[in-house]
Structures are given as structure tokens and as C-alpha cells.
Amino acid sequence: MKAKIIDGKAIAAELRAEVAAGVRELESATGVKPGLAVVLAGCDPASVSYVTAKEKACAEAGMRSFDIRLPADAGQDALLERVRSLNADPEVHGILVQLPLPPGYDAQAVIEAISPEKDVDGFTPENMGRLAIGRDCFIPCTPHGVMELLARAGVETAGRHAVVIGRSNIVGKPLALLLSRKDANATVTVCHTGTPDLAEHVRRADIVIAAAGRPGTVTGDMVKPGAAVVDVGVNRVPDATRERGWRLAGDCDFAACAEKASFITPVPGGVGPMTIAMLLCNTLQAARRFAAAGARGA
Ligand code: NAD
């Protein structure tokens, strides 16, 4: 194996320790203890485990977490009502509605009900729009985590060609915006299901970001020698050697890509841990703004 493996777990732990220090500092200076409300409708097992992990991380960082659970059939109006009451709660600085919502909900309307100042996922049109025009905003956690991983691993982005595979609102699109911003200064190509020859684009990439949600999307022969490969994908693939019958895999053929790349992120243990770390960063940022607005008497 030639590539240096980017240890997302270690980098996320570093960030979480920085957030915990920031939380202590903010609380002692202003009396404001950052608070994150996590809203879960229904009991989808994957969502329950994500929500539990987020709440645990909050507690470890010294933040307050508010665990709001609604039955799957609570309905759109009840969910909107909860979001509105959290918008008005001064102890809550960040609000996260766990997606996907059960069938019958209008997720976009729920996202749009979140106050932009508490939108620590960065999914509201206000924050997405601000990201697009280069204004200060909450950056969606997974793309934010990818940028932080690249920076902390020492992967240069300026003047390099980045190929982003995927154009979703939560990963691909914000990543393309972040990489092309002046501070990152990469030249960006966005590939998606309408791209006729994915391999042709990936072969020209100095940085490959795979967020397709399909194992085997990036094979070793597509990777330019020395490229950095960031694998955002999280897929369950059958594995008879495991008792549970499956394992997690990314979108890239890890072993083959690692032979060619200079840097690579593993799955699990790469981008995944960064998502929660960035959620904590965004919540601390929201609480700092709240404290500053209070000090200004706003
Ligand atoms: P999505 O399904 O909304 O979007 C996938 C995108 O990939 C689409 O834009 C589609 O056009 C593109 N795509 C799919 N197959 C392709 C192909 N063969 N060639 C080119 N483009 C293709 O998914 P998403 O929400 O953006 O998530 C992407 C992946 O990242 C999933 O595996 C998801 O589980 C994972 N994810 C991980 C984290 C994390 O914290 N690690 C967070 C969010 C998403």
C-alpha cells in the first residue's frame, strides 16, 4: 500500500477536544452553555443510532442536548410545532431534525421551518444560499468535515483539480462550492448519474471525492498516481465472513485505490467521524453568536 491513510477518527477526536475547550471558555466568559436539540420522528434503527451518537458526543463536549422524540405518525403539523418552539427556546442554540423522515412528511418544509441562526446542519435555503454567494453561514457537516480532513491531513487544494462524484444537497453540491471558493481555490468538476464517462473525469483528478452511495464507483485503474481520494460513501455490502452477514464499505475500491493514491480515507473511520465533530463545531459557533447578540442587547 502506497497511500497515507487519513485517520478521520483521530482528527475528529482532536476537533472534539478543541470544541470542548471552546465550550468551557464560552460558558465561563458568558454563562452560555451551548445546547443542541436533536429531533427524531419514528424509530428507524439507523436514525436512532445516529441520534444517540450525536447526543453522546454533545455530552462529552460539555454541551446540553435536548432529545426530542416523536412517534412516526405524529404528523407534519406536530413536527413543525416542535421546531417552532425550539426556535423560540433560548437554551437551544442548534436544531437538527434527523433525516430521512418517515413517509408522509414534507422534509423540505420542516427544514425551512428551522431558524437559520439555529440551522447547525446548514440545510436551510438561507444557509445554502449564503454558502453559494460566499457569505458567513453554517456549512453542512459532512462537506465541512471533508474540507477539515483535507486541511488537517495537509492535502493541498489550491490550483488542483478536484472531481466530486455526487450532486446531492447535503454532500456533493456544497462540496463543489467549498472546493471552488477562493480559500480552497481548486478547479472543480462535478460528476453525477448523467455523466457519460465517469472514469475519464476521475483519471484527471488530483483530488477525488466519492459521494455516490454505490460501492465500487471508483476503481483503482481510475485513480491518477499521487491523487488524494476521499470516500464519503457508506454502504452495506454482503460479507459471509461476518456474523451479521454484512460490512460497511465506501464508494471506492479501497485496496486498489490505495496502491495509486497519495492519501486515502478509509470507511469506516474516515469521513464518518468528522460529520459529528463538525456538528459540534457548528453548535458552538451558534452559541457564540447567541452570546454575542445577547451582549450587544440584540
Ligand atoms: P444521494 O443518493 O442523495 O446522492 C448520490 C449522488 O451520487 C447523486 O447526486 C447521483 O447523481 C450520484 N451518483 C450515484 N451513482 C453514481 C454513479 N454511478 N456515477 C456518478 N454519480 C453517481 O446520496 P448522499 O446523501 O449525497 O450520500 C452519498 C453517500 O455518502 C451515501 O453512501 C451516504 O450514505 C454517504 N454519506 C455519508 C455521510 C457520513 O457522515 N460519512 C454523510 C452523508 C452521506
Taken in chain order, the helices and strands follow as: EHEHEHEHHHEHEHEEEEHEH
Largest sheet: spatial strand order: 1-11-8-7-5-6
In percent, how much strand structure appears in the residues?
15-25%
The CATH superfamily of the largest domain is identified as NAD(P)-binding Rossmann-like Domain
Count helical runs: 10
CATH architecture of the largest domain: 3-Layer(aba) Sandwich
Largest sheet composition: 6 strands, parallel
Distinct small-molecule ligands in the complex: nicotinamide-adenine-dinucleotide
- Radius of gyration, rounded? 20 Å
For the terminal residues, how far apart are their CA atoms? 56 Å
Supply the helix-strand structural class: alpha/beta
* CATH-defined fold name of the largest domain: Rossmann fold
Overall pLDDT: 97
Q: What form results from the Cα inertia axes?
A: globular
Description of the molecule:
With 298 residues, this protein is an alpha/beta fold. It folds into 2 domains: 84 residues, Leucine Dehydrogenase, chain A, domain 1 (Rossmann fold), CATH 3.40.50.10860; 133 residues, Rossmann fold (3-Layer(aba) Sandwich), CATH 3.40.50.720. Helices cover 42% and strands 16% of the residues. The chain contains 10 helices and 11 strands. Strands 1-11-8-7-5-6 form a 6-stranded parallel beta sheet, sandwiched between helices. Helix 1 packs parallel to helix 10 and helix 6 crosses helix 10. It is globular, with a radius of gyration of 20 Å. The mean pLDDT is 97. Nicotinamide-adenine-dinucleotide binds next to helix 10.
Question: Could you name the key traits of this structure?
Answer:
single chain, 298 residues, Rossmann fold, 2 domains, 6-stranded parallel β-sheet, 10 helices, 11 strands, globular, binds nicotinamide-adenine-dinucleotide
